[in-house]
Amino acid sequence: MSVGIGWLLLQPHLGLTLRAGPNTVDNPIDFVQPTELRDPRPWLSGGELVLTTGLGLDFDDFGDYVRRLAEVGVAALGFGTGLSYDQIPREMLASADAVGLPLLEVPFTTPFAAVGRAVNARLAEQEYEMIRRASATQVRITRAALRGGVESIVRELATATRTAVAYIDGRSERVISYPPSAAELVDHVADLGDRRVASATFKTAGRTVTVQSVSHAGVLIGHLVVEASRSLEGVELVLIGHALSLVTLELEKLYRLRSERNNLGSKVFSLLLDGRLQADEAVESLADAVGERDSIRVLHIETAHPSESLAALDTALGSRQRPLYTRATNQFLTVILSGDDTVSDVGEFLAEVPNGVRAGLSAAERLGNVGRALHQAKHALTMSSDRDRVVEFDATHGTLLLQSPEVRSALALIASSTVAVLADYDRENATHLVGSLRAFLESNGHWEAAAASLNVHRHTLRGRIDKVEQLLGIDLADARIRAEILLALLLSYESIVS
Fold it and tell me: Per residue in 69-80, pLDDT tens?
């Protein structure tokens, strides 16, 4: 707040007259400082109306005195006539014109205290007006929040402060701005650098930008950015603070609503998994987690830190405007996802979850088959590793069973009494029974195809397969035997033949 020199000159009871300096007197006065010191600069900070009678000055001092005041940025100089000097010395007038410092004549009948009281009274009026305006605007912004949420808060703040305002959501990166061109203010969030959770004000020539952080439960969730083509006034800073509080409250309300919605959906999901709720009874509560094709996927996660992983996953899905319906048991999280989610999508979710989680993802299933989807996800989890954080269940690959530890153990026993026997015979007799058997089985028993893959005559291949059946005491006409031997071969081929 400040008082214009022009306003002061218009007060008839003061009788002040502009005697030198610029023709336009736009300099704002922040404070009135009477002094008779020859050099008051150490006690001045700029913006003052300095009042003096010249009591301590000589004629040789007048020019230097005015220049010293101009150096520290005083708003104006008031010279009291009728006491030490009957009129303002010409040297002082000339120097004021030269440096562009407004020089006012204060008549003998006007006490310096009267000038100070007038300025203080005007500043008090402005402060009251500021409080009144801030109060009225706070009410309007609050009503706007009740009517239209964050969008209305941003618009009302921009209108009330005559600034450009933008809210940047830290999760979804959505930008709410007024006027629309204020969306460009998002660039200033990057200016915070490593201080992304802090607030800062940037000032350049004729422009001020303030970036305020918005947090929920100690976590940064966005920024409110305000740009003005001037320095921001006290009332405007008050209004920005009020708007920031309202934005925080509004977003907390949305987060609480999301939390309650997630809790309800998770309970329904858990009842569905336990078979205590039918799919047609659960579909309405889980509708926003089901894909457009009315299908779901189940994600089964193993984690050493369930609470931290759950919070991180909630943030990852929340930033994508997705619900989180989950059941937590011991070190496992079971999550229902859309059937449209790909393993790549899930990989992106989990990339935001720390502490080295592993996960299995089911195939797309109808909601009524959620139990089967859970079994698929659990099986896929057994195939995951530190390298592959998430593995997708896919029965069409033909090697899914080989990833199960139980199945691998059984197949290893079969291989030790079959494939290993053939491998020993090959080494002792320079034959090719193991390779011939694999080609025969992988060709589904088609002699011509298998022989062609080995580049031998089919009669040669028949002789080798007869030898295999003789050594192992088996009949490869039995489909079940062929299946077991093929799986044992796929598991142990590299280690046995090497």
Answer: 999 999 999 999
